[in-house]
Structure formats: structure tokens, C-alpha cells
Amino acid sequence: MVIPKELRDIVSSPQYKVKQLKVEISKSFTTHEFIELVDSLLWISPLLELLLRKYGKWIDEDKCYETISFKFSYEKPILGGENSSCCKFLPVPSWRH
Predict the structure, then answer these.
(1) How confident is the model over 44-93, as pLDDT tens digits?
(2) Is the pLDDT of residue 17 over 60?
(3) Residue 14 φ then ψ, to 5°
(4) Is residue 54 within 8 Å of residue 65, measured between CB atoms?
(5) Fewer CB atoms inside 10 Å of the end CB: C or N, the chain?
(6) Pick from 46, 62, 50: which is nearest to 20 by CA?
(7) Comparing C-alpha atoms, which of 52, 48, 50, 51 is closest to residue 18?
């Protein structure tokens, strides 16, 4: 599920309290599609600490799973010159900050 950027710009994130999210997908993604998926998930839950991506694929008659995890930190801004006013009206700053 990819949330359109136009909607993300005008609507607040719905799940601020979610700290861990597990996503199970059944198809492979291109790098660009995967980046869009992660961006949308971080909009949905902007304070994620852990994102687990589980991908299942069939090998012969068995289904094999590959799991990748992403850990996020909110201690320091990634870019010092970034304008933080984009989310000043939200109860919690966005994940980009």
C-alpha cells in the first residue's frame, strides 16, 4: 500500500504510537517501489523504532521466507539545514526530522 504524496501532505499520520511494524509481502519489489513502500509506512507510523519486512517465495513445494529489519533512531536530525517547520502543527515531528 503506497499512500499518495498529495494525501500525506494534508493529512496527519494515523499511527503515532506504533513502535514496531511487521510487513509481509508476497511479491518482489524494484528498489524504487520498495523505497516508496517504506516512505509510506513511515508516514503511517512516523515514530517507528523497528520495521520488519518479511518476503515469502515458493521454492519447489515449500515457501521460504526472507526477513530484513530496519532500525530507526530519532536522537539527531539527519540533515542539519533541513527546515523543520513542515510539521510544526503536528503533535509529534515527522520521521524525517
Answers:
(1) 888 889 999 888 776 666 767 788 888 987 765 545 555 555 666 655 56
(2) yes
(3) -85, -20
(4) yes
(5) N
(6) 50
(7) 48
Q: Which residues contact 24 (CB under 8 A, 6 or more apart)?
A: 54, 55, 56
Q: Residue 42: is it exposed, middle or buried by C-beta count within 10 angstroms (0-12/13-18/19+)?
A: buried
At 54, list the grid cell.
518479511
> Measuring CA to CA, which residue among 82, 90, 79 is closest to residue 43?
90
**Rounded to an integer, what distance in angstroms lies between the CA atom of residue 22 and that of residue 67?**
10
| pLDDT exceeds cutoff 60 at 5 | yes
Burial grade of 70 (CB within 10 A; 0-12, 13-18, 19 or more)? middle
pLDDT score recorded for residue 58: 63
pLDDT at 86: 60
